[in-house]
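call fold(seq) -> tokens
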Amino acid sequence: MVRHNNQLPNNLTQLQNLIKRDRDSYKDEFRQQLAHFETTLEIFNLNPTEYNKKLDEQAMFLAQVTQCYQNDMKHFPQKIVDILKTHNTTMQSEMRLALCKCLILLRNKNFITSFDLLELFFSLIKCQDKHLREYLKTHIISDIKCMNMKHKDMKLNSTLQNFIYSMLRDSDTKTAKLAVDILIELYHKNIWNDHKTVNIIADVGCFSKVTKVMVASLKFFLSREEEEKPDSDSDDEVDPKDTMIANKFNKKTRKRDKMVEKVKKIAKKMKKKKQKAPIFNFSALHLINNPQGFAEKLFKQMESSNERFEVKLMTLDVVSRLIGLHNLFLFNFYPFIARLIMPHQREVTRILQFAAQAAHELVPPEVIEPVMKAIANNFITERNSTDVMAVGLNAIREICARCPLAIDEDLLRDLVQYKSYKEKSVMMAAKSLIQLYRQSMPSLLHKKDRGRPSEASIELKTKKYGEVDTKDYVPGSEVLLEKEEMKDKSSKKINKKSKNKADDSDDEWIDVGSSDSEINISTDSENEDDEEDDDACEEDRPDGGASDGDKEEAKNEQDFDAADGSKEASSNAKDSDKLRKSLKPKKSQNVEEKIKVAREIAMDKIFTDEDFKRIEAAQIKKSVTGVKRNRSVVEEEDESTELVQLSAIENIHKKRKHDKNARLETVLKGREERDKYGYKDRRKNANCSKTNREKRKTKSYQMVKHKARGKIKRSFKDKQIAFRNYLVKQKKMR
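ret:
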């Protein structure tokens, strides 16, 4: 035991373990190590450029046992801080990192405040040590995240924020870059996601003289994607948990095994998505306090700067997004963009995207006119290639989708003439422009290009510049009144049917005529129920469901006519005729009557979710009636995105030619997750034995040639001998 105690001063790991178990018994050994540390520290101060392994071990040991002797260790954290402050740049990198780890350990045990540690670490950023900077950045982010895990201390957060904001204004490049990186990371982790953080990055970071800080701040406003689209529709339909359970009881096949593997991958993706921080419904651009002033200042800085072309493009992207999101007025932006719109310009499709993003309904047509003329003159001409013409038409379509008055009637009709162009890419781009104006302002198109008139196109009103079309009713709510009348009629028929049955049971007579009428009434009510289901389903299938709905209406009208014909002999013929006339809906009613009915319903009724679904289905039906529409057009209408997708401008309807290398690349890509060619050993356990038939394939021919003789057709005598031997064998077995 004595020998064991004598070794303790040299074995700090064992002493640390013993102290944590019984602190009082080893107090003398601890004080001895503390004295050794102070002596070693004095020696280190004489030559701080060299790595002192003994000081490293003693400092880590004391940091581990600090909580056991708090009275003796009051000044220990401050000594470590003083060393780092005094010799931060001259100290050896490993020694500096070791002392930082000691301080982080003391911070985790709350022996040093977060603010003091943050102040020290930002002073260490100036050191030429990339590994240390990454380590300190990770710790600062995780430390602030842990502080805000359970509840947010607003006072402490405000103090830390103000300190980091002051570091963002620091003249040192590394310090300012670390400060902006920390702010951006904390925003993305939903810790400091308030408007104060966003506005500091906007006001200080975007206008920093340090290019790295400015680029990081601009990327912060451009980094958010709209929505993560699923890889395929089947990913949403498959439930991994249910599929894995069902596979235990189903027959094992290769197809099912492949499906299980696919489901496992989907489950892995879903798990990753759950681990990520939730995405906001809005981007950081929505939280800016003064978007107009910020956009003007940013655009002015870009015009006078000598930065690289990529940095200027990022600035233009931020400015265009601000204009589109907040409906700003920045009239100098459009002539500047118009000068850059040339087919040979680098990144010209992105510039066209910025022009479309900066368009909104409040932009005067004469202001955006230079952009439209530049696109029409430089892109949509016969001297350019078909791809260039298609890109120009797509860009004009995206601009007009956000600002319908940006193009005049003459230019629109000229561009529409490309609908019969020989190249498919140009033809499809022109047709998409026609489809856009059919639904927004059909009066600008030529009569032959407006398509078949529908109820929606008749109700459509062309708005002038600055005009707002506000309604005091819910459009399409008149269908709810018709549905109520249908239900009332069906309930009356059911009551009448039950009444007739009661009369028949009392008199004990069977009336053949009345029974036929009842059959007709029941079929009518069934048809009405089918119509309700069809109306409810029209929302899910806006393309084909509309024509089916029209057929259902015609069928129901025929059924009502048949039912009325059977009831003419009864006493209630007049009432049924009145009800049928009231149910003749929409063709006899004009627009004013529909608006009047919709306004009355909106005043008297509180709409439910089912009512809104029915109204939406009816509105879709209006826009489809009498107009042939492709499924792709409907999907494009349903997409409502704040920002312009670059793929919408670069989308060229053309089958590209593939050379041999491109074809070979696609072939190899398709073989990535596929089994190899040749014989497939289907054994679940590779170590288990094979069947005799499988072993026969690897044997030499001399061992199996006698088997091949069995395939020769036997003679009658051989069959007799074989049959005799069989009978003898059977007799012996009895």
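Residues 285-452 form one domain.
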